[in-house]
Amino acid sequence: MSLIVLGTASHVGKSVTVTALCRALYRRGITVAPFKSQNMSLNSYVTADGSEIGIAQAVQAFAAGIEPVADMNPVLLKPKGDRTSQVVMLGRPYKDVQISDYYAETDMLLAKAVGAFERLRRRFGHVVVEGAGGAAEVNLYDRDIANIRLARSLGLPIILVADIERGGVFAQVYGTLALLPDDIRPLVVGVIINKFRGDVGLFASGVEKLEELTGVRVLGVVPYADIPLPSEDSLSLGDKRGQTTGSPIRIAVVRLPRIANFTDFELLERHATVDYVPPGTPLAGYDCIILPGTKNTVEDLEVLQSHRTGEELRLARERGVPVIGICGGYQMLGRRIIDGGIESGSSAEYEGFGLLDVVTAFTAGYRKTTVQVRRRAIGPGPILPVMGEVEGYEIHMGETERGDLPEAFSGEGAASPDGLVFGTYMHGLFQNPGAVNALLAYLSERRGVPFEPVGEADGDAAYDDLARHFEEHVDMDALMVYFQDGEGQPREEQIID
């Protein structure tokens, strides 16, 4: 069987709950797949066959010990601004659409989502479904393919997740349950209270009161835990304010209005002071500057130009500060961007920052590159040659001609002759310890501070830590009822240590 995890609001911990549950089931020898019918996020991931899905579903798949596939996130909305989003359907670009027109296709989108869910269930046996935003958005019930209409179509048990850190947890849970449609409310079999800070025992009377008020069992109160998992969306980016490692190395990531895949820098964040700085922020005092990916290169470039970011970048270049562009940031570092109407809606040329002698063209058509890559860093200078072989993925429109500049990586990217400015389409570059070590070693030497190399990441350890944390505070026996095979027993009863 399977179940659905819904939330009382956005950012209450639905994704982390699904990730934890997937890993806990994996540790019990139970095969399970994650599923989110509709996701809205600019943080995405490319599967082995080139499909694009929300990064949260990829993380959940890894936690479950399986490879991500397009069916895990059949509809991905990537906001572009002006009430328009790119719709990625079953891993491939479908079209750009305004939200009013998108809702006109609700029935078709729901059918696609239910079909994807059924394929996952046939393939993996069990599925953990994640809702989107708050479950009780009453004005959306007729077109809510992520929560109510999906729950009605699947008829699965529902777990409701609430965030006590925000306050008002009683109103969150009671209000959500009261507003659910009459046919959906009985499907709710339990509540999980998430992000508790302090002694969980102090909330024992709160659990009793909540169960008395709602008639629904509280399955657990999960304390806040700082376990390194990739962030899902722009709400997570807001949480990064004020984070610090104490490292003297300061890296500025320009916070573009339409920033995409900022998860690229989360390994760097754990070993250096990484600031996400808005356009117009003075960049003096930073040891490295990174222009990240964006959903709309042209519009974000115009914003940066209006804030004189190009002048800040040129001054940093004169000071010998490394400047790195990832995907859209790589395109901005070039001399010129030629838009055939793909980005801005009309044919035009735009002046880039000119730190790399490259030209990017967005040609007619709706073609998007989505591919996993493994490349060797071959560019000049003190940083690139030290990286070795790295892996990541490309998600981009447009093609970049590098002219006479050396490649940054085998078959891709470009670097200045001294290697201190380089660009690449490779998302995930700085999730490779080799790339992080190469950059931080150079920056530390330049600043004259000690450098401690970053070890190889053990993703399984983080998933196991999350699962143990979840298992300690949630009634797993109650949840296991919904994940039984054959005569009602899990495939393996032995929990993996």
Main traits of this protein?
about 500 residues; six-stranded parallel beta sheet; 16 helices; 26 strands; about 30% helix; about 25% strand; globular; disordered C terminus
Quick take:
Pfam families: CbiA, GATase_3. By secondary structure, the chain is an alpha/beta fold.
Lay out the secondary structure.
Layout (H helix, E strand, L loop, with lengths): L2 E5 L6 H14 L5 E3 L2 E3 L3 E3 L5 E3 H9 L11 E7 L2 E6 L2 E7 H5 L2 H19 L2 E4 L17 H7 L3 E6 L5 H11 L8 E9 L7 H11 L3 E6 L10 H5 L11 E5 L4 E2 L5 H4 L3 E5 L10 E4 L1 E2 L2 H10 L2 H10 L4 E4 L1 H6 L2 E5 L6 E5 L7 E4 L6 E8 L7 H4 L1 E8 L2 E3 L12 E2 L5 E4 L8 H15 L11 H15 L2 H5 L17
Parallel strand pairs: 1-9, 1-10, 2-9, 3-6, 10-11, 11-12, 13-15, 13-16, 16-18, 18-26, 19-21
Antiparallel strand pairs: 4-5, 6-7, 7-8, 14-17, 19-20, 21-24, 22-23, 25-26
Give structural notes.
There is one protein chain. This protein is α/β, with parallel strands linked by helices. The chain folds into 2 domains: 3-229 and 461-480, 3-Layer(aba) Sandwich (Rossmann fold), CATH 3.40.50.300; 249-447, Rossmann fold. 30% of the residues lie in helices and 25% in strands. It contains 16 helices and 26 strands. A 6-stranded parallel β-sheet has the order 2-9-1-10-11-12, sandwiched between helices. A 6-stranded mixed β-sheet has the order 15-13-16-18-26-25. A 4-stranded mixed β-sheet has the order 3-6-7-8. Helix 1 (14-27) runs parallel beside helix 2. It is globular and about 70 Å long. Mean pLDDT is 90; it is low at 486-497.
